[in-house]
Amino acid sequence: MTIGFGFEGPIAEVVYTMNYTDFRAWIVLLALLAACAGCSTEPDTIILEAPVLTSISPDSGAYGDTVVVSGSGFGPHPSANAIVISPDRFSSASSRRIIVPFGGSGTELRGVVPDGAFTGSVRVERTAQLGRMFSASVEPPVSASAALPFGVRLAAGNVGKSFFSGEEYTFSITAGASSEDYLVVVFSDAAPPLPTETQNLWTYLYSITTQSSIALASEPSDAGPTVAAAASKGVPSSERAGQRQNQSAGEMGSRRRDFEKRINEEIKDLLARRTGAPRRSAPVRSSVGVGAAPQATFRVLTNPNASGNELLDPDNFTTVTADLKYEGAHTLLYVDAETPQSCLSDAEAEDLGLAYDASIYAVDRSSFGNESDINGDGKVAILMTPVVNRMTPGGSAGGDEGYIAGFFLAVDLLPDFAGSVTNAREIFYTMVPDPDPADLKFGNYFPKEKTLGVIRGVLAHEFLHMILFNYRVLTYGGGYMADYMEELWMNEGLAHIAEDLNGFDASNIGRANLYLENPRNVTLIYGGNELKERGADFLFLRHLGDRFGTRIFKDLVQSKKAGVANVEAVTGAYFSELFADWVAACYLDDRGITSDPRFNYSSLNLQDNAVDPHFEPILTISGSISSTLESFVKAMAPEYILYTIPAGATVDFTIEGEASTGRMNAVVIRTR
């Protein structure tokens, strides 16, 4: 049974629900209280006296400094109290920084300012000793004091996290004997209001108003907003635009991106429509290594714009005959019989099959988990066919849209749903080289060396999708439910991690640069289709891997959770905390400002421009300390603003978002 009890105190009324075991403990407690205090007309009500906070000394401190809070009504032991620092929302778990007292009494507590805290308020919370009588499933009642203001001073390399998730937040920074540099990173954790395809376009306006305590003769009063407004547009120079076009060609192009997104979404819709459909028993598995037929036929999608039921329409597929060119322990590589030797020789096909069989297969499997084996042959098939080449209109592969180099089609693993269009096996489809510009066979020029390299990256990328599909749909979903499908941003981010783990980094760097050149315009978690969003997803997940170890990628794949909930479950950390550490790392990495691994990459060097391709510096804008900056960010997208505080000056900052929708937050980094 469950019984609810209410506790009334001077701060709030809290109601708790408990199980039968906890109820018995309460009965014992109430009996003891009755024996001590006599009968009560309200035996279910216990009055908890709130602690009173009168002072905190000093009223500001740096990380590691000892602070002393004075008052009355504190718990009898230091461990019964918590000194809590928060910008303004003590109720938000992620915005709280806890100082665990190391000494004190009923009128005084001593503790150390924790890492990550930032200027806001402090209060004392007392945990009722009554809670010690209950099992861990019951949260004991907490009483809290009123709050007092408290400032946090940052040393060079310190990162303060202000998760105020509100309309307005004010803080001050005072420089010492020398001028100091600060980077203020603003972001909104508000979710876009509509779950539509364009939800990631939603933006949130904000302003930062600053006022200095000293006259600034060297800085014109109108310089800040003008400079900031121009820089914050993030329009790349012609040189950077040219570099971006080169790096975003090929498999990075929007054609493949849009095609891949459409396939993912349509498979999810298909499963949703077929929920509850009976599933046939699994096939009898044959032993691995049985020789494959030297020739086979396959159904291949011809329409890259197919959606909905068009993915099940035989008119959007063609039948090809292909020859087996390589058979390995895990791989069968077929080449469409239409392909001439001038486009792809037997030796070149064999080399590609060996690269997948001996390297890519092992890396993806060890990093993420196992693929399915619905036909029981123990092999993953690769079909290289000009049908994929023809998905890109002739003569257009060198443009901004790029081209489709290959894909994985989940209907091949859903034979009960897909009927006559499925190949009922684990299979990837790739293009073939078309290396003679004077005699194009299939419409676009694709030189051999580059094309075969691109295909290797595609196989690593698509194999992740196959593995993820095995866990989320075939295993957890029983083969007919999409309940555990991963969100697009995570699905694609992990696929780009697969490229990285296999050493195919050029495209990831190109995508990352699209994010770094204008981060405020790139949502991390509400997109996943735009190339710049995939660049952000890659950098975020790569940072998680550096911080928690690469095992985290397998945990993310094999979880039953999705998106933010997935990240929090496997890391044990609040997503806002991880986001703040990541945005700090995107600026601080390898600058020599801090060696803290939370704010650096171990696998990447974002400052090394001596190699090509390389990462571009993240876009920062200049803020004025005597005027107002007005700008915008997308949901879960950061803006980086640099401020210099003159020696001896105090600057008051007010960050303000849109009323009721802004939910602004800040990460404040002392850089010098």
Topology:
Blueprint: E1 3-8, E2 13-18, H1 20-37, E3 52-57, E4 60-62, E5 66-72, E6 81-86, E7 97-99, E8 103-104, E9 108-112, E10 120-127, E11 142-144, E12 148-153, E13 159-166, E14 168-174, E15 180-188, E16 203-212, H2 223-232, H3 238-247, H4 254-273, E17 295-301, E18 317-327, E19 331-336, H5 346-368, E20 380-384, H6 386-389, E21 406-408, H7 415-418, E22 427-430, H8 448-475, H9 488-501, H10 506-516, H11 531-548, H12 551-558, H13 563-571, H14 575-588, E23 621-622, E24 628-634, E25 639-645, E26 650-657, E27 664-670
Parallel strand pairs: 4-12, 19-20, 20-22, 23-25
Antiparallel strand pairs: 1-2, 3-5, 5-9, 6-7, 6-10, 8-9, 10-11, 10-12, 13-27, 14-26, 15-25, 15-27, 16-24, 16-26, 17-18, 18-19, 21-22
Helix pairs in contact: 5-8, 8-9, 9-11, 10-11, 11-14
Describe the protein.
This protein has 672 residues and is of the alpha+beta class. The chain has four domains: 3-37, no CATH class; 52-153, Sandwich (Immunoglobulin-like), CATH 2.60.40; 159-234 and 619-670, Jelly Rolls (Sandwich); 243-485, no CATH class. 28% of the residues lie in helices and 24% in strands. The strands form six sheets. Strands 4, 6, 7, 10, 11 and 12 form a six-stranded mixed beta sheet that branches. Strands 17-18-19-20-22-21 form a six-stranded mixed beta sheet. A hairpin with a 3-residue loop joins strand 18 (317-327) and strand 19 (331-336). Helix 8 packs across helix 9, helix 10 (506-516) crosses helix 11 (531-548) and helix 11 packs across helix 14 (575-588). The longest helix has 28 residues, at 448-475. It is elongated, with a radius of gyration of 30 Å.
